[in-house]
Specification:
The chain is α/β, with parallel strands linked by helices. It has 2 domains: 132 residues, Periplasmic binding protein-like II (D-Maltodextrin-Binding Protein, domain 2, 3-Layer(aba) Sandwich); 128 residues, 3-Layer(aba) Sandwich (D-Maltodextrin-Binding Protein, domain 2). It contains 11 helices and 15 strands. A hairpin with a 2-residue loop joins strand 6 and strand 7. The N terminus is likely disordered.
Length: 334
């Protein structure tokens, strides 16, 4: 009887191990979110909505074009759009908001162009709308410039933002441990329903540490790390350049790849990035040739943008094998 119980225990233990081990090995995949939604999932809107023309709100009354842009694209594109408007003698109204603001502007039909710093969600793919990718940009991990740590593995980064690693002394660089101080984690969990961006780090807000301080703006994500020697956050190089004194903040390499290494980003080897998109309308009641011309101009502009902004244009992504459907990026390179 005793031998039988031992045998059953052994078989049960082995069976349990076989069940647990695959989950251990795939833990990083379980916490990571998807990069893109399915292109084929288009929401068919009612006929009344489809026939409704664009109707400007007060902020765009009397304009030739109305544009809504998220917090990333607004500071980057506003000067470009203003220059384009002057050259083409157009009155273009631009409203700053979030990806949610842009999505609402499309659904309410109050904007000719909407800008997103994320790939569209299933709910954003309304009939009659086309997304056009401007490029992608590394999402860099930021720390104070006085922090001796210069690199993390992707696994360590995820463990820090989950709260499993909570002291810098748990991290070694060149054989030396970081300071024995609590890690101050800062996050900005916007666009929770859209794929990509911070969701490539951890898929949803429930995975982040309860000790994380959640911030609402991009300048806060940069300034908190500049002021806090033991802080960590994330942001694009473009926004870091726009909002910070680079002497107070530095970026970390992930798995020995720097966020400034565009070649690795293009090859699909740098794991965290943003996808920038703008939209046009395609139906007869909403199509605007001036809007389509401006979007083409913006795509061409990104091809000539200073590389220090960290945005990789679509021509390089296509060449590297990223998956596109017309002008929209829909998948990483195989």
């Amino acid at each position: 009887m005793k031998k039988t119980n031992q045998y059953l225990w052994f078989i049960g233990h082995i069976g349990l191990s076989m069940f647990i081990l695959p989950n251990v090995w795939s833990m990083d995949e379980l916490v990571a979110g998807k990069a893109f939604t399915k292109f084929s999932q288009i929401i068919e809107m009612p006929e009344k909505w489809r026939k409704q023309p664009i109707q400007y709100k007060n902020w765009a009354k009397g304009s030739d074009l109305a544009i809504t842009l998220d917090q990333q694209l607004y500071p980057a594109l506003l000067p470009v759009i203003q220059k384009y408007a002057k050259q083409n003698k157009l009155d273009i109204a631009v409203q700053e908001g979030t990806c949610g603001t842009s999505a609402k502007g499309l659904k309410d039909k109050i904007a000719d162009i909407a800008g997103f710093c994320c790939p569209p969600s299933e709910a954003d793919r309304l009939s009659g709308i086309k997304f056009h990718t401007l490029g992608i940009a590394s999402l860099a991990l930021l720390v104070n410039s006085k922090n001796p740590i210069n690199k993390l593995s992707l696994k360590q980064a995820r463990q820090i933002f989950q709260g499993h690693i909570f002291r810098w002394s748990s991290i070694k660089n060149k054989g030396k441990r970081g300071p024995r101080r609590i890690i101050q984690v800062f996050g900005r969990l916007h666009c929770k329903q859209r794929p990509g961006h911070w969701r490539l780090l951890l898929d949803n807000e429930d995975l982040f540490s309860p000790r994380m301080s959640e911030l609402s703006t991009i300048p806060d994500m940069v300034s908190e790390v500049a002021l806090n020697r033991y802080g960590i956050s994330y942001e694009t190089l473009m926004m870091l350049k726009h909002y910070s004194n680079s002497r107070k903040v530095k970026t970390l390499s992930i798995d020995h790849i720097a966020p400034t290494d565009n070649a690795k980003l293009i090859a699909g080897e740098y794991p965290l990035y943003r996808t920038y998109n703008v939209t046009t309308w395609e139906s007869q009641t909403t199509k605007n040739r001036q809007a389509q011309a401006l979007v083409k101009y913006l795509i061409d502009y990104m091809e000539k943008l200073d590389p220090s902004y960290g945005i990789v244009p679509v021509s390089k992504l296509r060449k590297a094998g990223w998956q596109f459907m017309e002008n929209e990026i829909i998948g990483e390179p195989h």
